[in-house]
Amino acid sequence: MSYAFVNASDQYISLGSAVLTSLPITLACRFNRAPGSLTSIQGLMAIRSASEPPNHFYGLLLRKSDNRVFAFHGHVAQELAAATAAFDDDTWNSAGAILAGASSRFAWNNTTKSAEDTDFSSTSMTLGDTLVGNYRLASGAGADCKIADAAIWNVALTDAEWLSYHAGLSPLMIRPDALVYYSPLAAGDRAWGSVGLVGTEVNGPTASDDHPITVYPGDTNLNTPAPKKRRGGMMLRGCGC
């Protein structure tokens, strides 16, 4: 399963507090959006100030001008790194923001990594919330897509670790010692090994039966009663096969 967010309805999930307040941070999720032009910058995930203004945040966003995933650190239009290839519509993409330090950030779109952005961000941020499906509280900042497997680590994932996530490995199996938040974004997802805070749905994002292919530890099956396949003692969920 996944959650479908509608930009025009300002839908998102709020965790109610900042899961991290200092770098390094990795934000990651899988997303699938219907064909069509982006009408605004849209937020997939963010750790942000609790009120607006100020609009301070660490974020994983989609850019409207060229359909790029980008990583953000700072205030409004401060420091960002954009992936060098556009994402694909009507399929599951992997998006990542690797925020390694105040002067080091990368964006991942599937297997394409941005150049390192080394501009120094001097913004002093007081962070108070974590969002999935949005990056600020203003109208039009939310996602227009399905999102699944949202995760946050308190480390900068290596290239190999990121590519494992993109290949479908569950965040539960990638640096579990540093994983501070994870949700498959499935109804009742506490049963599927979520980590960290439980989110509150705002303005009605809806659960969807669609979910990317993801390899999870253990014997539970996300898309019950979809058949299971074993691979090396692990289970494939969301494969619909």
Please describe what this structure looks like.
The chain is built from one helix and 18 strands. The protein has 241 residues and is mostly beta strands. It has one helix spanning 159-166; strands at 2-5, 12-14, 25-32, 42-48, 56-63, 68-75, 79-82, 93-101, 104-109, 112-113, 129-132, 145-153, 179-183, 200-202, 206-208, 214-216, 230-231, 234-237. The protein starts with a strand and ends with a strand. Residues 219-241 have low confidence and may be disordered. The strands form three sheets. Strands 1, 3, 8, 9, 10, 12, 13 and 15 form an eight-stranded antiparallel beta sheet that branches. It has a seven-stranded antiparallel beta sheet with strand order 7-6-5-4-11-2-14, with no helix packed on it. Helix content is 3%, strand content 38%. It has one domain (2-205): Jelly Rolls, CATH 2.60.120.200.
Mean pLDDT over the residues = 84
Task: Provide the CATH top-level class.
Answer: Mainly Beta
Number of domains: 1
Number of helices: 1
Shape: globular
The largest pleated sheet is described as: 8 strands, antiparallel
Distance, first to last CA? 15 Å
Question: Would you count the extended β strands for me?
Answer: 18
Strand content: 35-45%
CATH topology: Jelly Rolls
Helix/strand structural class: mainly beta
Specify the helix fraction band: under 10%
The radius of gyration is: 16 Å
Q: Outline the low-pLDDT stretches.
A: 219-241
Order of helices and strands: EEEEEEEEEEEEHEEEEEE
CATH architecture: Sandwich
